[in-house]
């Protein structure tokens, strides 16, 4: 939560997790791009995936 608004979520599924951001803050936004990722399907949680999630959450919370 940031400023009383959800900024990210985790949605469990049978075979994977969905990790995503709401409309308020999207740390994966790229200026000038016409498409912006808002959710990722996580099929395995290794060290590099955890690090990328940490980076995105820190950027969103910043």
Architecture overview:
The chain has 62 residues and is an alpha+beta fold. It has one domain. The protein contains one helix and three strands; from the N terminus they run βββα. It has a three-stranded antiparallel β-sheet with strand order 1-2-3, covered by helices on one side. The longest helix has 15 residues. The chain is globular. The termini are close together. The mean pLDDT is 86.
- List the domain count as a whole number: 1
Q: How many strands in all?
A: 3
> How much helix, percentage-wise, in residues?
10-25%
Largest sheet: 3 strands, antiparallel
Mean pLDDT: 86
Distance between the termini: 12 Å
Strand content: 15-25%
Supply the helix-strand structural class. Answer: alpha+beta
Counted by DSSP, the helix tally is 1
Order of helices and strands: EEEH
Strand order of the largest sheet: 1-2-3
Taken from the alpha-carbon principal axes, the silhouette is globular
Q: Poorly predicted ranges (pLDDT <50, ≥5 residues)?
A: none
> Could you tell me the radius of gyration in angstroms?
12 Å
Q: Nutshell version of this structure?
A:
This protein has 62 residues and is of the alpha+beta class. It has one domain (8-61).
Features:
single chain; 62 residues; alpha+beta; 3-stranded antiparallel β-sheet; 3 strands; 24% helix; globular
SSE blueprint and pairings:
Blueprint: E1 8-12, E2 17-21, E3 39-42, H1 47-61
Antiparallel strand pairs: 1-2, 2-3
């Amino acid at each position: 939560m940031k400023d009383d608004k959800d900024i990210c979520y985790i949605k469990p599924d049978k075979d994977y997790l969905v990790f995503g951001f709401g409309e308020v803050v999207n740390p994966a936004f790229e200026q000038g791009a016409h498409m912006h990722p808002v959710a990722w399907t996580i099929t395995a949680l290794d060290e590099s995936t955890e690090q990328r999630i940490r980076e995105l959450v820190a950027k969103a919370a910043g």
